[in-house]
């Protein structure tokens, strides 16, 4: 009950900070609510307090030092509670020596806690297309099509166009580019293309059966689809077969040599997932002779194609000097990239852009959270909102007349922006 009350207080604090239709912004009230919630250990409130103390400009050196100390104190408290933003913020502070001793090893310990969880979500041998489903990532950067265009594509697919049917099925599977996620429709159009031996559709149907997306998991059916896809040398099909042979099923004996063979085929056909899984086989010596050199080679190739678990694995190898030189700076850079692929960052980033025009204060709050966590693009975006006067999120206007309030707010915003510009530089 106490934790639930604290969570509500933290949420109300954010409303008081950014304001709402029927709620005027009140920085003092927001701080009070965060302090109440933080006292009983709410990580979100502790993070928000750390953010406020860190971002609030002070007139006297002693005040600045005290604010910075309180910022670190609350961020550290939130990080011990597992708050991803606070762990990233402490990692970023240790990396650059902001308010804490500069220490690459301390930075890595903070980043690795977040990166490990994100990598675990990614690295179950599934293709990146399906990873997007499991992570529920937003698709801000994808071009959306109109409802009339969707209807046109559906008609073309129904008329027998295999390529369009496959494209529609994949988009329904992911819920992107104007297509609402619908596993039933995805299965319908992927089957339409698969019946005409479209290799990519056969593989995706295999993953739907393997993961149980919109239907009961069935490894035998998944295996059948993967075999059909692999017959056409589809990289996702080979990766799926490698996954099933590596894990084994009730009717399929575990065979790491066959798993290695299919991961190898997948990798040489250009699949980042195949490269990642092949590297993991070399790293552990499963199904092949152990080779740290080959592990680094294929992890790097997968990383070049944007593969998140590969970044995490390479970071660990650089941290420990396995198969490559021990280099903490490279490791931390990779771990930071992994952290920024997680839902805590991606969801806030999309939301911040969506609010940018209709609610700049809310947008500024979201960008500021990401900025404190060390997200450089957000530091620039938050700085712009404060510098341009679009946001006065951290300005308290109590006791000022209208004329003085406007001048003070602009001056205050520029001070906040200056710090953010310096962080992103």
Return the average pLDDT rounded to an integer.
Answer: 87
* Stretches with pLDDT under 50, minimum 5 residues: 125-142
Would you report the number of β strands?
0
Taken from the alpha-carbon principal axes, the silhouette is globular
Structural class per helix/strand content?
mainly alpha
Number of helices: 22
Order of helices and strands: HHHHHHHHHHHHHHHHHHHHHH
Into which percent range does the helicity of residues fall? over 70%
Q: Main sheet, how many strands, which sense, barrel?
A: none
Report the β-strand fraction as a percent range: under 5%
Distance from N terminus to C terminus (CA atoms, Å) equals 44 Å
| C-alpha-based Rg, rounded | 25 Å
Summarize the structure.
This protein has 425 residues and is mainly α.
Report on the architecture of this protein.
By secondary structure, the protein is mainly alpha-helical. Helix content is 72%, strand content 0%. The chain contains 22 helices and no strands. The chain has helices spanning 2-18, 27-39, 43-55, 61-80, 84-96, 104-122, 128-135, 147-158, 162-174, 183-194, 199-211, 219-231, 235-247, 256-268, 272-284, 292-304, 308-320, 328-339, 343-355, 360-372, 376-387, 402-424. Helix 10 runs antiparallel to helix 11 (199-211). Mean pLDDT is 87; it is low at 125-142.
């Amino acid at each position: 009950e106490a934790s639930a009350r604290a969570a509500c207080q933290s949420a109300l604090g954010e409303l008081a900070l950014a304001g709402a239709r029927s709620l005027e912004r009140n920085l003092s009230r927001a701080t009070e609510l965060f302090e109440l919630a933080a006292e009983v250990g709410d990580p979100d409130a502790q993070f928000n307090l750390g953010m406020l103390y860190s971002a609030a400009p002070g007139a006297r050196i002693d005040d600045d030092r005290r604010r910075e100390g309180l910022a670190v104190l609350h961020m550290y408290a939130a990080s011990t509670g597992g708050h991803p933003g606070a762990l990233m913020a402490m990692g970023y502070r240790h990396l650059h020596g902001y308010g804490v001793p500069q220490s690459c090893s301390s930075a890595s310990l903070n980043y690795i806690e977040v990166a490990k969880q994100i990598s675990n979500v990614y690295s179950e041998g599934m293709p990146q297309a399906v990873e997007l489903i499991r992570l529920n990532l937003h698709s801000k950067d994808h071009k959306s099509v109109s409802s009339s265009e969707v209807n046109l594509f559906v008609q073309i697919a129904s008329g027998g166009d295999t390529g369009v049917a496959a494209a529609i099925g994949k988009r329904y599977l992911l819920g992107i580019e104007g297509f609402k996620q619908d596993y039933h429709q995805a299965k319908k159009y992927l089957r339409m293309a698969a019946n005409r031996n479209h290799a990519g559709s056969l593989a995706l149907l295999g993953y739907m059966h393997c993961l149980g997306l919109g239907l009961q998991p069935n490894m035998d059916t998944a295996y059948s689809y993967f075999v059909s896809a692999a017959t056409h040398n589809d990289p996702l099909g080979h990766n799926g077969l490698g996954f099933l042979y590596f894990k084994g099923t009730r009717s399929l004996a575990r065979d790491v040599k066959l798993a290695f063979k299919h991961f190898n085929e997948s990798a040489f056909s250009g699949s980042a997932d195949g490269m990642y899984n092949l590297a993991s086989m070399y790293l552990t010596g499963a199904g092949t002779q152990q080779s740290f050199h080959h592990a680094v080679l294929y992890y790097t190739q997968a990383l070049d194609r944007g593969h998140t678990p590969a970044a995490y694995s390479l970071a660990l190898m650089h941290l420990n000097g396995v198969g490559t030189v021990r280099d903490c700076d490279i490791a931390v850079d990779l771990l930071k990239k992994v952290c920024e692929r997680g839902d805590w960052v991606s969801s806030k980033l999309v939301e911040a852009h969506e609010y940018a025009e209709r609610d700049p204060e809310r947008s500024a709050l979201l960008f500021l959270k990401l900025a404190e966590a060390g997200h450089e693009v957000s530091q620039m975006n938050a700085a712009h909102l404060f510098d341009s006067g679009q946001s006065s999120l951290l300005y308290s206007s109590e006791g000022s007349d209208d004329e003085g309030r406007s001048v003070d707010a602009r001056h205050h915003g520029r001070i906040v922006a200056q710090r953010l510009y310096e962080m992103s530089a």
